[in-house]
Automatic annotation (TrEMBL):
Keywords of this entry: Membrane, Signal, Transmembrane, Transmembrane helix
Species of provenance: Salmo salar (Atlantic salmon)
Segments traversing the membrane: 196-224
Region (Disordered): 246-271
Leader sequence residues: 1-18
Keyword Transmembrane helix in record: yes
GO cellular component: membrane
This protein's record includes keyword Membrane: yes
Protein name per UniProt: Uroplakin-3b-like protein 1 isoform X2
UniProt-listed InterPro entries: Uroplakin-3
Length: 288
């Protein structure tokens, strides 16, 4: 019924001065997009389906009507509401000077495109709109960045391109506060910003590291300076044959445990030893 009332009202006055309100509110996109809210930009839901099915418009909603976005901060909301019935609304508050001084109107308009580019239902790739994607631009209706850390509100409007009058508009969004940047000079990078536990743990780890380096240095000095020369092990002489310790009649004896050891004749021992079989001294001995 409310929509019918506004349609009848529009028929009674000049069509270009009448706006049809649409009960839709822009908001931050619920999609998990990176950087959907920054210090100077925000990603909003798409205006698809916002102005679908409207009739008695001064422009053709499918071929000529254009969708624009109004971005405002502080008094910009009331300033736009006072200007939105005037023709050529796109020139009332150009972007480069929209927020430059206290006397600025603090709002600006950005063109999204023809209404037919935002069909209903939503088509993949048209589900959101990034405010501020043109950066710090200089044209009157560019998609410029917002003041850093500001609180802004947004609304989508349908505009007749013939005289740039608003023929339909959505509701204002809720306040959206952008992130604030911290002054680098105020960032505390000293120990005051560290907890006592972290300082203690850091000190202990540094002490262990110093001790480990000291031990490695001592080990290196020991290896280089205090190492003894390797001495060869003296191999004892052969015990294959030896003289029995008989003081009256000493005689050579063959140790059978070393029979496999090669014989080592020497100049001081030219005597050929006798071999005793099974240690039986009664049997005659055989010469080696």
């Amino acid at each position: 019924m409310a929509l019918l009332f506004y349609v009848v009202l529009c028929l009674s006055v000049w069509t270009g001065l009448c706006q049809i309100p649409v009960n839709n509110t822009p908001e931050i996109t619920p999609s998990s997009l990176a950087a959907k809210l920054t210090s100077n930009s925000v990603i909003l839901t798409s205006p698809s389906c916002y102005f679908n099915g409207l009739g008695n418009l001064s422009c053709n909603s499918t071929t000529t009507c254009e969708i624009w976005l109004v971005s405002a901060k502080d008094t910009g909301v009331s300033n736009y509401d006072a200007d939105n019935k005037m023709p050529y609304i796109d020139t009332r508050s150009p972007y480069p000077t929209a927020f430059s001084s206290n006397t600025s109107k603090k709002y600006f308009l950005t063109k999204l495109g023809l209404q037919k580019a935002y069909p209903c239902p939503i088509v993949a790739g048209t589900g959101y709109f990034r405010v501020g994607s043109d950066g710090n631009c200089s044209t009157p209706n560019c998609n410029g960045i917002l003041p850093v850390g500001s609180t802004a509100r947004f609304k989508y409007v349908l505009i007749n391109p013939a005289n740039k009058t608003v023929v339909a508009e959505s509701l204002w969004s809720n306040n959206i506060t952008l992130y604030s940047l911290k002054d680098p000079e105020k960032i505390d990078n000293g120990f005051a910003g560290r907890s006592a536990a972290m300082i203690v743990i850091t000190a202990i780890l540094c002490s262990f590291l110093a001790l480990l380096l000291l031990l490695l240095l001592i080990m290196l000095i020991y290896v280089l300076c205090c190492r003894k020369e390797k001495q060869e092990i003296q191999v004892p002489g052969s015990v294959r044959t030896y003289d029995t310790h008989n003081l009256k009649e000493p005689s050579p004896y063959v140790n059978h445990a070393y029979e496999d050891e090669p014989q080592r004749p020497t100049a001081t021992s030219p005597i050929r030893l006798k071999s005793y079989t099974d240690y039986d001294l009664k049997k005659p001995a055989t010469e080696l």
